[in-house]
Automatic annotation (TrEMBL):
Gene3D superfamilies: Glycosidases. It is found in: Golgi apparatus membrane. It is a single-pass type II membrane protein. This is Glycoprotein endo-alpha-1,2-mannosidase. Pfam families: Glyco_hydro_99.
Amino acid sequence: MWQVYTRRRRIRWLAIGFILILIVWCFILYKSLNITYEKDISHSHSSSLTSVSSFLYEIDNLDLFIKQTPVKYNYHIFYYPWYGNPEYDAGQYFHWNHRRLAHWNREKVSNYPQNPHEPPDDIGSNFYPLLGPYSSRSPTILDKHMRMIRMSGAGTLSVSWYPPGMADDAGHPWNDLMPLLLDTAEKYKLKICFHIEPYQNRTADNVIYWSDYILRQYGSHSAFYRYKEKGFFYIYDSYRISADEWYQKFLSNNKIKQQAFFVGLILKSNDCQQLVSSGFDAAYSYFAANGFTEASTSQRWSSIVGICKSIPFIPSIGPGYIDTNIRPWNGETTRSRQNGNYYKQMFKDLPKGNDKIVTITSFNEWHEGTQIEPAIEKNVSKNIIYESYHQGPFTYIYLTRELIFTT
Ligand SMILES: *[C@@H]1O[C@H](CO)[C@@H](O)[C@H](O)[C@H]1NC(C)=O
Ligand SMILES: *[C@@H]1O[C@H](CO)[C@@H](O)[C@H](O)[C@H]1NC(C)=O
């Protein structure tokens, strides 16, 4: 009897013990599952909120990142692939070593320095990039750029472009980089259109020729931006070619007008009528220095839309402007970022209408200080101090997203 009793008791205690252990084990398992679950949530959450951590982490689920980081393709951001450094560009820096440009007034030339900058510490910008004086030829840099642009909410890059073998004075040709740029944009489900620069001997005829070349070379790529099924070309300083020449050439090349949408640059509201009679499809203002031209004066934008009437006006917004490290005499054009308020004001002045195209000057025009690309605080010496953003390197990436999705 006693033995049976103790045996039963022992079994009971064993059972209770077993159940207790099971409960504790389940609890621990639950906790650990819960922790990893929460970790995943906050991780993916942070990418949708575009925090720095989402940038620093390897993205293990790209589809999720893209899904949780929406973009608007009607926001076109100007992108410059002209930077070079010794590691990727045959031992040389490009653009970071930009010259200090001579004063346009001959009498004043000698008042200002003209020596080139000496990277990596001394660069042709008033800001210093988080990614350092990078090369646009580095696939890692391009990947990071596309991720940053995705995080900014802008869906389309307007890539600065010169014909094969040509470049500006401070750069070297980069048309050969376009396939990699398109592929990297595609990875992040971004689109690319083209910003045709004033290359040597540019004429209406050869602009049409090169637009057709771009359509043939890149038009079938899935990252190639299309608007109403057409290729999209911004023509910088289009007014350097006469309205009559544009008109004649557009007229005699009817085919290109069916395949491509051409956007000309305007300085004044009246220039719009000229663009219309030249055969352009839209106008843009480019300059981020508010008030630099009439067309870049944000308070004038609503009226300019009315003046352009028959063609859309595409205003260009920007976070500020400062180019005194490459144009030491141009302090007058400086526009302080005012801790983001300058940028906010330009957004506020955008003519209303959700699906309208808006341009952002710029992702990485570092010389003119219009970039939203992350910059870091850096003091090299007493003489070289770089400006930084008020809320850290990603300030303008976040602010752009916030403004795009609340405008
Ligand atoms: C531009 O035109 C000039 C004069 O016709 C010519 O010498 C030069 O080679 C041309 N440059 C280019 C890049 O085509
Ligand atoms: C750089 O210099 C500025 C102005 O002298 C100063 O306010 C800032 O704290 C310095 N930053 C660093 C990182 O040394």
